[in-house]
Design goal:
- The protein is α+β, with helices and mostly antiparallel strands and 251 residues long.
- The protein folds into two domains: 96 residues, Phosphorylase Kinase, domain 1 (2-Layer Sandwich), CATH 3.30.200; 120 residues, D-amino Acid Aminotransferase, Chain A, domain 1.
- Helix content is 27%, strand content 33%.
- The protein is built from six helices and 14 strands.
- Strands 8, 9, 10, 11, 12, 13 and 14 form a seven-stranded antiparallel beta sheet that branches. The protein has a five-stranded antiparallel beta sheet with strand order 1-2-3-7-6.
- Helix 1 packs parallel to helix 6.
- The radius of gyration is 18 Å and the shape is globular.
- The two termini are 15 Å apart.
Length: 251
Amino acid sequence: MPRRRQIYEGKAKILYEGPEQGTVIQYFKDDATAFDGKKHEVLDGKGVLNNRISEHIMVRLAEIGVQNHFIKRLNMREQLVRRVEIIPLEVVMRNIAAGSIAKRLGLTEGDALPRPIVEFYLKDDSLGDPLVTEDHIAAFNWASPYELGDMASNAFRINDFLSGMFAAIDIQLVDFKIEFGRVYEGDAVQVIVADEISPDSCRLWDRNSKEKLDKDRFRRDLGNVIESYREVARRLGILPEDPTPLTAVED
């Protein structure tokens, strides 16, 4: 498929004009960033793994009725997705104390939260993606009350499903970040899951050893980032058991 006009380039993905109206080609880069882009490396094969893992999760979510932007995977690094108007909020679902919530509330990393907690962050790198309340969202009209309720209910539903899916392969879903976009169909506006769901956007720990299998390995200089992402893909049944080089994996 010939490459179309570039629409947008972010820290981990590039978006290109799709072959049909209302579609976009999403390209997964090997770039790894942290701390609002202050830390940056290129990790060979990360984009391939995130492409395959996100595809797997989006397909599984669609099977249970959680609508998302994924249409099909085009190749090892690209997906065809629905074009959406991204809502400028990151929705974070937390099950275990880790990352910013542990620092913010003085919690011990690894402690189970009393119940799953949903948080909203404004998507603005220049401000450090600040935590915002529902009142902020309503006052600045970043999302309507209906959209906010829809995003929260979907986040809880996704959390229930992914927690079970990962538990079945001995992985603990600590937390995850999702984004939503608006799709316009005539006079109707629908909110669907967009962006990606991968070890870049989830905290995933081995259920027994508590070894981190996610982007925290990059943030905290723990090493073996690609090996950990590959282990997640292997357990999900996406990659073969043998350590075949990523560049040799067939579509």
